[in-house]
Amino acid sequence: MRIVLDTQTRLGSKTGFGFYVNNLVKQLEKIDQVNQYTFIQPANDKDFSTPRRLLWDQLTFPWLANRARADIIHQPCFSTPIIHRGKVVVTIHDLISVFFSQNFPFWSGLFFGKFMPMTYRFADHLIAVSEHTKNDAIKVLGLDPSRITVIHEAADERFHPNYTEAEIKVAKANYHIPDEPYLVHVGTLEPRKNLNFLVEAFAQAIADPKVKGNLVIAGKKGWYYEGLFALVERLKLTNRVIFTGYVADEDIPRLMVGATALVFPSHYEGFGLPPLEAMASGTPVISSNTSSMPEVVDGAGLLLEPTDLAGWAIAIQRILTDTKLQQELSQKGLARAKQFSWEKCARETVAIYEKVYRGEL
């Protein structure tokens, strides 16, 4: 088979989509010596405006795929090419743009929240990154369950527990993180991540003077984040809550390993990669019990309602003071993370290509 993938998200600094595509491509090249792969991306830009995104997805990419005589076209992140030759496989990561359309600019909201989900009907087969995302696509978009296969993502190989104290210390110094215990949250500052709630829970937890530690919020500014900074000031937590801003790819795993726990009270995730990355790092996880997080964390972390302020405060107190709990969750997380791998993801993806090509899906 001649298989063509859109790899535009490998350009520039990596997002969640970029890590998915990058790891998938690396493993496809490693495990599949039978099929012929072509990876297509723009010359130097992945940050398209909405009109350029539409043009790339629907005209430029399928035209280039046709020139490559594709048997299978895989769009791993965005909208299904409607006019094309060959058969099309599309990966659905989440329905964030449908459920949280109010957080998108008008035209982006139309494209990601309306047009892109509509195009899924034109795919020959769909890959969902979690059972939760598959169920959302069935319930909300009315898609046929038989046209969707779940293939889980995995943590990048950079996430492991074997970083040295010196490496962790350098990473902490890069972001002015004191040499004290800390909880970490990794992700863009936006309302869906529920960070105001997290700060309030942290404030309640450390009201007990026996509870020592800081909260590190690692990630770039997204949207509607101004109230978060104001809340930290109002609660007089500027010496206990640290905003790192953008964190370099090589520093995130080191900060994860150095943390006492990952705290992740998100309202919605298509897969929930940070909890898996934390578990692969041997770092305990406290996460919300919504959307895909129970599927990823399973019984290897503490799962709570993302509105249970008292419950989160107690969980934070426990994880900062109970070394036995820390060790127990660390070991459970490491074992759970081993059940996910990019090689498995790639092999299952190749199986989908082959079945679609033979008309079995």
Structural summary, described in words:
- The model has no long low-confidence stretch (mean pLDDT 95).
- The protein is globular and about 65 Å long.
- It has a 6-stranded parallel β-sheet with strand order 2-1-3-4-5-6, with helices on both faces. Strands 9-8-7-10-11-12 form a 6-stranded parallel β-sheet, with helices on both faces.
- With 361 residues, it is α/β, with parallel strands linked by helices.
- The chain starts with a strand and ends with a helix.
- It has helices at residues 16-31, 50-67, 96-99, 106-119, 131-141, 165-174, 195-205, 226-234, 252-258, 273-280, 293-297, 309-321, 323-337, 342-357, and strands at residues 2-6, 36-40, 72-75, 87-92, 125-128, 148-150, 182-186, 214-218, 241-245, 261-264, 285-288, 302-304.
- 43% of the residues lie in helices and 15% in strands.
- It has 2 domains: 2-154 and 341-357, 3-Layer(aba) Sandwich (Rossmann fold); 165-337, Glycogen Phosphorylase B (Rossmann fold, 3-Layer(aba) Sandwich).
- The protein has 14 helices and 12 strands.
- α6 (165-174) packs across α9 and α7 (195-205) packs parallel to α8.
CATH superfamily of the largest domain: Glycogen Phosphorylase B
**Spatial order of the strands forming the largest sheet:** 2-1-3-4-5-6
Please describe the biggest sheet, giving its number of strands, its sense, and whether it closes into a barrel.
6 strands, parallel
Domain count: 2
- The CATH topology of the largest domain corresponds to Rossmann fold
CATH hierarchy class name of the largest domain: Alpha Beta
Percentage of helical residues? Answer: 40-55%
**Low confidence ranges:** none
CATH second-level architecture of the largest domain: 3-Layer(aba) Sandwich
Secondary structure category: alpha/beta
| Beta-strand proportion | 5-15%
